[in-house]
Every structure is written in C-alpha cells, then in structure tokens.
Amino acid sequence: MNLRGGRLQKKMDEEAAKFTSSLESDHHIFYADIKCNIAHTRMLAREGIIDEKTAHKIIKVLEELGKEGIKALKLDPSVEDIHMAIEEYVTEKIGEEAGFMHTGKSRNDQVATDLRLALKEKIREIQKELLNFIKVLVRMAEDHKETIMVGYTHLQHAQVTTFAHHLLAYAHAFKRDYERLKDTYKRVDVNPLGSAALTTTSFPINRKLTTRLLGFSDYMENSMDAVSSRDFIAETIFDLSMIAANLSRICEEMILWSTYEFRLIELADEFSSTSSIMPQKKNPDVAEIARARTSNLYSNLMSVLGILKGLPYTYNRDLQEITPHLWDALGTCYDMICIVRRMLSTVKVNSERGFELAVSNFATATDLADAIVMEKKIPFRTAHQIVGRLINHVIKEGLSLLDVNSSLVDKVSEEIIGEKLELDDDIIRRALDPHENVKRRNVPGGPSPRMVEASLKKLEAYVKDELESLK
Amino acid sequence: MNLRGGRLQKKMDEEAAKFTSSLESDHHIFYADIKCNIAHTRMLAREGIIDEKTAHKIIKVLEELGKEGIKALKLDPSVEDIHMAIEEYVTEKIGEEAGFMHTGKSRNDQVATDLRLALKEKIREIQKELLNFIKVLVRMAEDHKETIMVGYTHLQHAQVTTFAHHLLAYAHAFKRDYERLKDTYKRVDVNPLGSAALTTTSFPINRKLTTRLLGFSDYMENSMDAVSSRDFIAETIFDLSMIAANLSRICEEMILWSTYEFRLIELADEFSSTSSIMPQKKNPDVAEIARARTSNLYSNLMSVLGILKGLPYTYNRDLQEITPHLWDALGTCYDMICIVRRMLSTVKVNSERGFELAVSNFATATDLADAIVMEKKIPFRTAHQIVGRLINHVIKEGLSLLDVNSSLVDKVSEEIIGEKLELDDDIIRRALDPHENVKRRNVPGGPSPRMVEASLKKLEAYVKDELESLK
Amino acid sequence: MNLRGGRLQKKMDEEAAKFTSSLESDHHIFYADIKCNIAHTRMLAREGIIDEKTAHKIIKVLEELGKEGIKALKLDPSVEDIHMAIEEYVTEKIGEEAGFMHTGKSRNDQVATDLRLALKEKIREIQKELLNFIKVLVRMAEDHKETIMVGYTHLQHAQVTTFAHHLLAYAHAFKRDYERLKDTYKRVDVNPLGSAALTTTSFPINRKLTTRLLGFSDYMENSMDAVSSRDFIAETIFDLSMIAANLSRICEEMILWSTYEFRLIELADEFSSTSSIMPQKKNPDVAEIARARTSNLYSNLMSVLGILKGLPYTYNRDLQEITPHLWDALGTCYDMICIVRRMLSTVKVNSERGFELAVSNFATATDLADAIVMEKKIPFRTAHQIVGRLINHVIKEGLSLLDVNSSLVDKVSEEIIGEKLELDDDIIRRALDPHENVKRRNVPGGPSPRMVEASLKKLEAYVKDELESLK
Amino acid sequence: MNLRGGRLQKKMDEEAAKFTSSLESDHHIFYADIKCNIAHTRMLAREGIIDEKTAHKIIKVLEELGKEGIKALKLDPSVEDIHMAIEEYVTEKIGEEAGFMHTGKSRNDQVATDLRLALKEKIREIQKELLNFIKVLVRMAEDHKETIMVGYTHLQHAQVTTFAHHLLAYAHAFKRDYERLKDTYKRVDVNPLGSAALTTTSFPINRKLTTRLLGFSDYMENSMDAVSSRDFIAETIFDLSMIAANLSRICEEMILWSTYEFRLIELADEFSSTSSIMPQKKNPDVAEIARARTSNLYSNLMSVLGILKGLPYTYNRDLQEITPHLWDALGTCYDMICIVRRMLSTVKVNSERGFELAVSNFATATDLADAIVMEKKIPFRTAHQIVGRLINHVIKEGLSLLDVNSSLVDKVSEEIIGEKLELDDDIIRRALDPHENVKRRNVPGGPSPRMVEASLKKLEAYVKDELESLK
What we know:
Four copies of one chain form a homotetramer. Chain A has helices at residues 14-20, 23-26, 30-46, 52-68, 82-94, 107-143, 163-188, 207-214, 223-228, 231-257, 285-308, 323-345, 351-360, 365-376, 380-396, 406-417, 425-432, 434-440, 449-470, and strands spanning 148-153, 156-162, 190-191, 218-219, 265-266, 348-349. By secondary structure, chain A is mainly alpha-helical. Chain A has three domains: 14-103, Fumarase/aspartase (N-terminal domain) (Fumarase C, Chain B, domain 1, Orthogonal Bundle); 109-146 and 162-185 and 193-205 and 221-356, Fumarase C, Chain A, domain 2, CATH 1.20.200; 365-432, Orthogonal Bundle (Ribonucleotide Reductase Protein R1, domain 1), CATH 1.10.40. The longest helix of chain A is centred in the first third of the chain and has 37 residues, at 107-143. The first copy, chain A, is elongated. At the A-B interface, strand 1, strand 2, helix 7, helix 9 and helix 10 of A face strand 1, strand 2, helix 7, helix 9 and helix 10 of B.
C-alpha cells in the first residue's frame, strides 16, 4: 500500500523513511489498533456506511491477525507505521475491499485512540504494583512497630521513631501516587475516534457506538483538540516521575542505611553486587541504578513538554516523537517499582543498631524540653535553650544523655534563666528513653505503636478495596 | 529570638545567613502563617495544653499583625524566616509567653501547613482565570461559527473548518487543565499540622480541631510523610506547565496568523510593539514572551523534581528551595493566562483571507474523495489516489480546484483504475465548496455550525456551574 | 567468571541482574575495551609486573577477538558487563592465566578509559559531518547570492536580504558548534587508566606508557577524580544539544517556508510524506521529526546532569546510567545533521516568491529612513517616525511602497516635523528597490553579494583546513 | 521617546507593557550599553557619518551618565528597556540630536553587544573564584597528606586514601571547569555590533574600529547570525551548571561526613544552623541549599535551550527571556562557589575517626589480594576470591582484618585453590596497615604523600600562572 502514488512522485529517501518511521515503538499499540479497527468497521456496517459483508470479512481477518500476533506483519521502514502494516495485511487477505475500513477515519484519530486504549491498561498495571508495594510496607511495618530507629532531619539525628512509622511514610507517598494515576486515568479514558484527520467526516458515523465498543467512558468533544492534544501523555509521565522520585528517596535511604557507618540494614545478597577488585565490597547497585533512572523519567517528561511547546494545531509529526517516551517511562517505572519493592522487602533490619543510634546522640532531647514545658509551664523556646546548653555540657564532658539528671539540668537552667527547675529524676529518665518516648507520641500520624497499628489497618483496608475495584 | 544560644556558640556567618534565608519569598505565606499560629494556639488552649489567657494574648497580637501587614515585621537575613519574625513580633508585644504558641509544633509542620493554605487560594485563582478564558473563547466562537478557515496538519492545509471550531479546541484543552487543578486541589487540601518536627509530639494535641479551624478536608496520616513530602508542589507546577504548554500553542498560532504571509488575524495595537529601526513592523511581542516563558514553567518543574530526587527523609533544607519555584510558577502562569486571553480577545479576524486560503489549496480535496466513495462504493484508498493524481494535474495546468469537473475526474480515474467514475458535476462542486463542506461535517465534535453551537452551549453551562462551585 | 564466589553467597536475583546490567549499550565500547586491555597487558609485561609469555598469550587472544567481533562473546545479563564477558572469553581460551591482565586495573578505570577512547572517534565523526554541512551551505550560497528574500524579525518582514546571506548565518552557527566540540575533545582526550578502583595500585605500573599506547594526549592527574568524573560526557552532550538547537531552527524555517502561505521553498518529494486521508498534502515530516528530537538531546543532557547532582565520590553505579545517554545523543545528533543537510540541499528555492514578498510589505522601509538621514541630516528617530507614518498612509490608501514619491514623503514630513524634505524621487526609488537595497548593505557581515562572496571564500578555506587536520 | 508614534496608533496596554518589559534585569547591562553607545558614536564621527560636534556632545552626556549610575534614568515599564531609557536621557540633555547615536545601529545588535561585554567580565570573576577555590584545596591538602580516610565506591568502604588525595580530586574537577570557561570566553569575545537589526546598514560603518574600541578579539562574520544567536549564553550556563554539579558533590560529602554516623568532619558553627524544636541539632544548611540550587542552574540551562528550540531567524522577543537566566545563573553559581569554599575551608577534620574507619571494614583488603599476586604469581581473580572468602570468615568469627595471619589465609586458600599460600605474616600485616598501604600506592595520580605533594605543587603553579593571566 503506497500512499505516495497520488501526490508525490518519488519514493521517500531510504534514510528519511528510517528517520521518520515509528515502527520501532508501534508494537505497543498492535492490539489496540486491531481493536480500534474492528470497532470502527463494526460501527460503519451498523450505520450502513459500508457493506455488512465487507465489514464481516475485514473483522474476521483482523481477529485472525490478533491471534497470530505482530510477527504476522511485514514491518520495514517503507511501511511507515503499524496502521499501514495492518491495512496491508488485510488487503493481502481480502483485496482492495480492505480500504473500506478506513472510511471516515484517519491515522490521526486512530493513533490517538490506540495510545489511549493501550495506556489505560498500562496505568492499571502500575496502579496494581503500587498497591502491592503498599501491602509489602504494611506487612513489614506490622513486624517493626517496636523497632526503634532515629528519625533524621538534615541527615542529622532528630527524634526517635520506629521503623514501622518510617515505612508508613513511604506507603502514604505511594497512596497519593496511586490516586494521582486514578485521576489521570479519567482524562485518558475518553475517545478521540471519529475525529478523523482533524474535522471529523461527512460520513454519518456514530461516535457513541465506537465509544461503547472500545470501552471508553465518553468521546472527546472537539475533533481538532482530539487529534492534537497529548496532555494525557505528559500527565501520565508526570505521575510516573513522581513515583520515581518517591522511589529514589527510598533508594537513597537503602544506600545510606547499608553503609558501614549507618549499618541499619543489610541488603540481601540477591540484590547486591561485589567488586572486581575489592573483595570486601557489598554494593547496593539496584538502589543506585533505580536512583539514577529517576532522572530518565524526568527527562521523558521534559521531552514531551518540550515537544508540545509552541506546536501549532493540529497534528504535527512531532507528536509521534512523544510516544516512545511514554512507553519508555511506563517500562522504567514499572521495573523500578517491582525491583525496589523486592529489594526493600528482603533487607535485614539491624534493630540493635537502631536502638544504639537512638540513645547515643540526643535524639530524645526534644522530649526533655517538652517535659520541662509540661512540668514547669515555661515557654518552649526557653526550655529549648536550656536543653541546647545541656547538650553542650554533656558533649564537652564526654557524657551521654542517660547520665543527665536533675542536678545537671538545674546547673544549666540557672545559667539560662537564673533559677533551678528541680525536675524529678524519673521524669527526666522517661523523657529520654527511646521506647517510652515513642509511646508518648500518641497523636494521630505519630509513631506510637497504637497509632501505627491504626494507620496500617486503614491502609490495609484501602489496598483491599482498591485492588477489588481494579479487577 | 536567637535559636543558636543553646547548641551553637558562634553566630552564623553573614553570607551564609543570606545564602540560606528564605525571607525573600516568605511574604507569600505571611497570612497563612498567622492563620496557622492562631488555629494552633486556639487548639492548645481548648485542649488545656496552654493557658487560656496566654492563648488569648497571643491570638490578639497575631490578629493585629494580620491587620498591620508584613511591613510590621523586622525582616533581615539574621531572622532566618517569617516564622521566627512573627514569633519575635509576638514576643516583643507580650514577652516570653509568646513561646507557648510553639508548644507541640515545629517550623517543619508549620511551613508545610502554610504552603498548603496559601496554595489552595492560588489554585482557585488560576482555576477562575481558566474558566474566564473558556468564557471568552465561547463568546468569540459564537461570532465565528461560519467564519471559514483552513485547518492545518504539519502546518500544511489539511481540511476546511471554522474559526469557532478551532477556538473550541483551545477551550477543551483548558477544560482539562481546569479539571487537573481540581484533582490536585484534593491533594493540597490536607493538613500536616501536628506532625511537629517529624514525629508529632507528646503533648495531647487535637489534630481534628486544627484541621477544622484551618478549613482543610482532612489531616495527613503520617507525620514523617507530612513534613517531608512536596509532591503537592510538583503536581501543581506540572498542572501549570501544562496550561503554559497549551497557551504557548495558542501564542504560536497568533504569531503565525499575524504574519504577512498568513494574514488571518491582526493583533490589536495595544498588544503589539514596533521596531526602533524598522518603522513598518508590528510585532507580536506579547505572544513571543508568553511562548518563551513556557520554558520557565517547565524549568520550575524540573527544579522541584531535581531537588526531590534521592532526598532522604525527612525535612532537609533543600525543601526550602522548592518553594520559590512554586510562587514563581503561579505568578508566571497567572500572568500568562490573563494576558494571552486579553490578546486573543482583541484580535481582528480576517475572514476574507480565511476563505481565500480555504479555496486556494485543495483543502476540500478529502471531501471529493469521500464523495467518490459514497457515490461509487469504491475503497477509500483508491479514491484517495484518484484525488491525489487529480491535484497533480490541476497544479501542473495552473488550474484551481473550482475548475474540477466530471470529465477531468474521469480522465484521472481511467489512469488509476481503468474506468470512468461519471460523477455528477454538482456533487463535485458541493464537495469542494468550503461552506457546504463544513456543514456536512455534522458529527459530534465536528465543525458544522450546528455541532459547534451544541458544543459551546455545553461549555457555557459547564463554566457557569464551576464558577458557582468556586464561590 | 563469577565475582560473587568470595564475599556474596547467593547469586544475584535474575530481575536484579537484568535491571543492573549494562550489556545493552556495552557494544559501543567493545573495541575500545580490547584496545585498553592490550595496552595495559603490554605495559604490565614491559614493566616486568607480569610474565612476558602470559602477556603474549593474552594479547593474541584479544586480537583474535577483535577480528571475530562482539558476536564471539557470550552476552547474557548474568555476565554483568562487557569487561567480564571479554575476560571470560580470554579465560576460556587460555585458562586462569587470563586473570593476569587485570593486575593493577579495575573496571572503574577501564570503563572510564573505554568511554573516552570510543567517544574520541565519535566526536571526530560529528565534527566531519558539521564541516560537510558547512560545505553544502557554502555551495548553495554560491548559487543564491542574488536571490532576494525577506529577512524576518518577530516573524514579521524586517529588511531585505538574500538567500545566500541567510544560509551563511546557519554556517556560522555550525562553525561555532564545530569549535566547541574541538575544545571538548581536549578534555576527553586524557587517560584515566592506572587509577584502578579509585586510588591507583601498589603495582609499579607505567601510566605514561599506556597513555602513549592508547593515543591519549596525557593521563589524568588524580585517580579519584579519574574514575568518578563524567563531566566530559555532560559537556559532549551539551555540544550536541546546541547543534540540535541550531538544526531545529533550520527545520522550523523549512516548515514555515514550505507552507502554502510562505511558498519560499519546495521540499523534495524524497523528504516529504503525504496523508492517508488528504491527498493534497505534502508534509515536511523529516523537519518535524528533527525538530522534535531536539528535545530528546536536551533530555539526555538533563539526565546526565541530574544523575551527577549530589553524587558522592567516587564510583557509584549511577554512573553506568549516564553512558546510554551519551550513545543515544551521539546517534540522534549524527542522524539529524545528515538528514537535515540532505533535506536542505534538495529544496527548490522559489526566487520569484522571495522577490514578491520583498516588495509587498515595506521591508525596504528602513532604507528610506536611512536615506532621509543621509540626505537631510535629521536624527534617525525622526526619520523613523516619518517613514512609520508614511506606511500608515500607504496602507490606508491601498498603495504599495513602489508608489511612494517625493510629494507623498513631503506630505507626511510636514505633519511630523512641520517641513518638507524635498527628496529626489530617484533616491527614494533606489532606497526601496530590493536588489539595490541589498547591494548597498556592503558592510562586513552584510548581505551585499560582494560581502557574501568574501565570507563564503573564508568559510571554504576554513572547512578545507579543518577537514585536513581531522585526517 | 515613543517609537509607536509612527506605525501603531494606540499605546501598549499597561499589563502588556509590564509583561514584555526587560527593565527588571537590564541593570546588568547598564554600563555595557553606555560603553557600546560611546564606541559606536565615536566610530560614526571618525568615519564622517555624523557630525564630530554632535558626537562629542553625545559622548559627554553618556560619560556623565556612567558616573551618575543607573539611578539617573527614568525606568518605568512604558520605557520598554534600558536602551530607550538611555536614549531618552541623552535626548533630555541635548535634544533631538541624541538620535544620531543610533545611526546604523539597532537594539538588536546593541543588546547582543551589551550582553557579551557584561558577560566577559562576569566569566572572569567566576574564573578567579574557581582558582581561589583550588588554592584553598591545595592549602588544605598540604595539611592532610598523611590524614588517613576511607575512599568510597557505592558509598561502601573501598580502599584507603588520604584526605589530601580526596581534596585534590575536587581541585582537578574545578581545573576542568576553569578551562571550560576559558574556551567559552573565546566564543563570547566577538563583536556583533554593526549588524544593526539583522542585515547591517547602508551607512559605511567601520566594524573593525568598534571591535577595537570595545576590546573584542574580532567581529562576528554574519549579521543575521550575530543578532539571533544566543549559544554563547547556553554554553556559559552549561559551564556554570557543571561547576554547580561539582559543588553539589562536595556538599553531599560535607552532609554525609558531618552526620553522627560518619563523623569525619565537623562543620564550623558559622556555617551550620540548629533547630527550632530539637536543641541537639547542628544542621548543614549551607551545603543543603547549595546542593538544591544546583537544580536551579540546570533549569536555567533548560530554559535557555527550550527557548532556542525551533526559533526561526532572526531576532524574536523570546530571546529577551533568555537573558534573566544568564544573570541568575551567574549570581547563583558565584555565590555557591564562594560559600562552599568558605564552608569547606572551615571544617574540622576528625583524623582519628578517619583512621578508625580505615581499619575497621577491610578497606585494605585489595592490597592483600595484590600482595598474594605479587608474591605467589597467581592470577588476580583467584587472589580476589581468596580474600573475599577470608573476609567472610573474619566477619563470621567476629575478628578484624588486623587478626588475619598466614595460617588463616592458608585455611581459606586451601578451600579455594586446594593449596596453602604460606605468605610471610609480615607481608600480610604491611598490606593491611593503612599508612603503609597508602605509601605504596605511589603511582602518578595516587594517594602516596609523595605523589600528592608533586600534584599539589603543579596545581599551585597552575593557579599562579592563570591568576596572572587574568589580570
């Protein structure tokens, strides 16, 4: 099938054909294209636009092609794209009549429809894997509700928390990522078919019917918009970029925590590599690669936005270059979710080290300040200053927070506010003990085992409901 | 108020203080910070955590500050940020007691809360301007339902449409932009307050109450997530980038259409500039600047994503650098929407030129192919080839499409399929006339005046409902 | 060869192995890796670090492998990378002795060396194609020194120029692109080999010798820097991005100029496509695709910079993810240069249309203003205002600039400055005639045929010299 | 001065004027613009194009303005830009005659000239600060040639090195950054003046003279290229981005090393902050902010490239939007260099901790493998396996590397290769001692104090020479 026979008299230059061909990534829309052609042909026949018999022949061949798979097609750059290859296949089987399937349809609306059909499935797959990740996090959190660790700000010890509480922070980020995709799905799930090249057609096609046959929630309401908009792709890739960003933060923590210096976790051998020259190494390569690939997703997004900028209406061939970024981003993100989930779920948590760090560097200091406020009703800023000065003393004299007692506190408080606080030693000790400390942070969203338990129950139910809804 | 008195013994280096200060963009959260402090203080008192009287004093001073405005604060880099400046203000008015307002609260949850409070309003503003833009487009479309113009693909003449139909393509893109912001809003509208530094607090605070007082729909369910996530900012800036991309496409068309070569529109003098050296120029500067600024929005997005990549939990000072991109992006996008809308609404449409182009370069050729299919029941691809060859003849012989008649069609069809088509001359003429042509594309989403009328009525109702809902 | 036998007890997870493998892009460094191994082995033997005979065996096998090509290797993800695959190949041929070739060497310095070796050749290829492009432009310019066209600012008619002058603007941009690569080459052409994993080695290796054997200009002076820096890749991709940006500007002009509205050029059939539904179309697909791919190059750059941000020393697996962007960018850019050059060199220039536009829209108006300044010694701004007003008159009365005469000028000048200018009609006519106009812009860098001739002679000589130097 | 008096009849819309004004960033080119006007006017007079007396008056006023500074100008959006403001100033002082300074000149060539003039100075400033940074690193390295620390790959302990060696890795990255700017400078240092709007002028201007007067090395050879190319800006910002990337890697290490877990350095109080709620914190805010701002520089680059993509020749107002990114990037980068240098130069290095880490986690293991190869002439891969297995034993039995002796080695070697190695205990100990280990890596580029000393001497001389050349 050579479109050029009419207007253009010379064949396209071979290099140019290769340069402009979309075949390399068209396999992603092979099944969608068949589905789209079948629905359109069925509609054409039902509306009496083409002959019922012809339609029947076309659909039969298309269904056969669907069974045979893409290998049945002749795919070389001279064919331009999958749409032409499929048409050629049908033509070879039933002759010129095949051409009727393109009545009132163009590659412009067809490719837009194919992309949306294929993307809808891919979004569902990513959504499922996100829910599975949350499930894994919930399960791990269940085991670590009492596993003490330091929470960091500025990568400095801040306050004491539990490993479970930290894992649920990841889970909540993924929950938003999941919901973002759910919203995006609505904007993908609309049908451009019937827009033809850009202004619909003079054939009396039935857009409601193809919309129903293809399982879209509605058709797109302006044909020029329908063939030239790719915001649904940019939005999807943004969502994937955000997922990747969240994964990269987890990877960063896996890398940090598995250093000799932190030693909070040990990665499973299956997710580590060693060195060709340094036999003692155990490297977090999976986490590093995943961290790096985050940049690739960002770049997919930038490419798409960059291509769209200043592009006049309606279809321009530039739009073709957007598509590979979509498939690329979906593949990268899917792989990242699965591998990071598996890497994380196989780490060995070093809970002694977690506790050791929690008591060695003043992470419970805020609670001492809070206790002073509660007991003595002095403003927090003042308590903060007292505790700050106290830490300086402790460091200078080589002590630990566990050595802090009432008389030491009083010494400092006299310096700062000119009077003693006379706190009970027991109050001081309880404020500074990590387990006690965590239990007292019993506010919704907080690390106390009770709150964490409530939170993970809610997540569990959420995941169950959503997985159900995706079926 | 100097936080450093405790732990750190030397003042921050002056350059370092300047380098790390967020004051330059903190004015955006001035009112939100006051609101947040008031709600928190009110809650503390109601839960009996601080003294009712103290709370009363603090709130009164905060309310006064709200009335006086940001100029009442001492803002120099040594103050670090707006939170410290406001605390200092309250402290100056009521003394040390001011410190009680920070009980069970940290700058980490406070800044996250402030950002969300301020952003919620800004999103609403952008949403309103988008709806106003759609309104303008609908109004313009009403006037141009019969204004013929060429629709382009690959910037080549493709098919005939109307100016109204084209304007509605813009409108539908903005409708999606609007809905995207609506979805994003849900994820902004959740309350991090109560998360404190990262693990909530041992004070028995009431997060439901502050959530209600601040008008959030819910509180965030994990405190570590609450203080360290900025996906709501990335998502907002993505939405704005998408709006900008859509605006840039309109601007590109304004620039093209106002060239001497296209002459489809004339920009109003108020939105053009001239040259310092070439007195004949009338330059579309507004459209050019808006087109260019699209890149700035993309870059805001990239900065935010770049900062988030691989950032360990929880708060890191890097997060502060995200915020200016948000305000910048909101400002740029808001300005772009308003100015492009006004530029577009003041153009003079050159409808004669629209018609002239529509008849001069075969834009109605597809319809002739369609007519051949309808009348003669031959496959579309064959009809396509006949018309392609026909155009070559017409060009070679210096004719126009209006010169095409039955015998010319037959001459070509004999070459291609070996037989005459014997079409009625009248059918040929009707297929090629732009007005007739447009009328026949009477499919939902198409350019026929009837379909366009239906479409703009729906948009009008949509805008009305949504504007109502934003009140 | 399994590195894991020592430290790690379980095999890497299959998905993880696939996820972290670099094999997909390692074919780019196959020959470089052989070359690098040979040079290193030769040096080890010459310095007496390994046995001369062992070295001889290793080198012989490596040379054979070079002849057989990459297909001789077993490449599956379990092999990790090309370095291991090559070592395994040598081991199979000569047994355990193969291991001696890695004495005092690591994959970290080896991959850095391979990349630089392979990149040096690729940069030369791009440089040659740039020079070829300039050659084509010079040849075309030779033919079009008198072909009048309008020069645009803001896409509005600005002043008259020639097609040759415009083509040389492209040439000068490419000349800078070429020189930028030349500068980059210097920073690529340094040898990291001998840095081993990160801190060199205790074997007494001879870095000067391997530097000479591999043809580098010098070795890198700090081993930690040598294995962890990838700025040479970022810089190369920036250079390629800049080339792409320049190509995209040319493509944009090809797209604009081949519209029905501009009609300044006609693309060759071989570099155009038509439509599946609109038989009259002749689409500039090559230019559109090239324009879009520019974004891909930008994204390659962003990925690399994104990966490098905040990466601690020294080697991290993230660096591996940088490399595919390099090969990708080189391939995309190379293809773009070649195809745009061929597309441009086959366009048909419509010189009548060029002239027609030059006389129809006041593009020579500046020269009238200049003539007034020269003749009457009044300030340019005043002359500018007179000509501006004059154009308004001409438009309002439906005249053309060729109708302008002395009395019309005087009428306007009286309005503006209150007195007549009494210019000679002949001076007016000469200022407004495009050919005359161009000839008078006889300043270095200007469009006068004499200046253009001088300029293209210089470029011709430059290209010749540089092509010579690349041999 | 209102340019609009001629062609456009209505004033620009106020919002549009604000939207399109460049005044906000024009202060960067104030002095350059004066310089440019003076040189041009001087040339006009010398070539007899304008009256000597007029020129004298204009120059005198411009010189006065230079002394008064930018505050002497009326800068409101209605003025459009600095060029018009300066012209207006001159006009107010000497009347209409001021207009003569624009003879044969346009804002298009003038702004391009101004940008290059101002940028040349800014590049020099950045270059100087880079040299100063290298100086600081050399000075610090001088003090730390024997300060043992672990070198990392994959953030895992790899091999032992010295702090000095590590600092010189930074220095060499900066050296390349410096040289890159030097190359860029050549492409900035060319003169566009005389190109006028786009096609030079019919006035017989002398471009060589203005080139000399302005201190450029040459003039640009094609006027259309000269007014529409901004690659010199993109290239500069790329260079700055690369500097930022290198700085961000240093910052990342400062952040890591100052954690409680690493404890390799302590930041000076002057470059740290504390927390409003956690009194024990000492946060590396400066390093965090600098790390984050790296993304801003990348975004500046992306904006510029994004704006250039697909922009037709010649001047388009989009180009104006490029400029603020340049000033922004220069400012950000300059600040980052200075502050990171000062932060780094004030850290306290914890050399005991460096040594402690060096002996605790097998970082010298490679050397044991090397020693086995040297002594026993067995292939490295085999030695690597033996040492790997050895480490497993050591870990399992809770020993340290310092406990390794000949009999333990033999036990493992029998497992792997079936025979004992019978290494001298002394050889084993020497291989494993960090100081000994470092001394033996006496290869150019390596960490041995002798090599480091040689390297820093070379750098010292380099910096001295280059600082001299910048004077």
